[in-house]
Amino acid sequence: MTRTGWLLVGLVASLALLGYQRKEDIKDMLTPRGIRNNNPGNIRHGSARWQGMSPTQTDTNFVQFITPEYGIRALSILIGNYYSKNGLNTVRKIISRYAPSSENNTDAYAQAVSKAIGVTPDTIINVNTHKVALVEAIIKHENGAQPYSMAQLNNGVMMA
Fold first, then answer.
1. pLDDT, tens digit (0-9, with 9 covering 90-100), for 23-44
2. Quick check: is 148 in a domain?
3. Cβ distance 107 to 120 under 8 Å?
4. Which tens digit of pLDDT belongs to each residue from 9-18?
């Protein structure tokens, strides 16, 4: 059989397997990882034991939470700590710490978040007064969408 023939056989077999998967499985594959994990900030595993962590952690890289509000809470705490403990008071400084350039296009990330909250990347801000907007913009940047209601965002931030 030719190479093209084998490729066609593989393609047909793959499509057949997809046909047997449940619709929920396919939906899960299309849902961003942060949303699937109830971790819309894509917080990586570390030494912190977050409130609301799922008892079973099947994602080896990113924390999984029992509800989106607990993931939003964790993101809110991180941002708040960057501001209160580390003095990071601009979007650029916060995003540079949160999403380092070794893994992200930090400048583009800071530009997107700044635009979303209506400031420049280097404008000094009070993070506490911009927290919900910051969380919302980070979620959108991390996942390509921000699917949560304002009530969910506010609840998660208030839980922090």
1. 555 556 789 999 999 999 999 9
2. yes
3. no
4. 676 666 566 6
CA–CA gap between residue 11 and residue 121 (Å, rounded): 46
Give exposure, 41-61, as e/b (b: 16+ Cβ within 10 Å). Answer: bbbeeeeeebebbbeeeeeee
Residue carrying the six token digits 């530009």: 111
Q: How many domains does the chain have?
A: 1
Closest CA to 64 of 32, 30, 36, 25: 36
Q: Give dist(CA 137, CA 110) in Å, integer.
A: 10
Domain limits for position 141: 31-159
- Helix ranges (DSSP H) in the chain: 3-20, 23-30, 33-36, 68-84, 91-98, 106-117, 127-143, 150-159
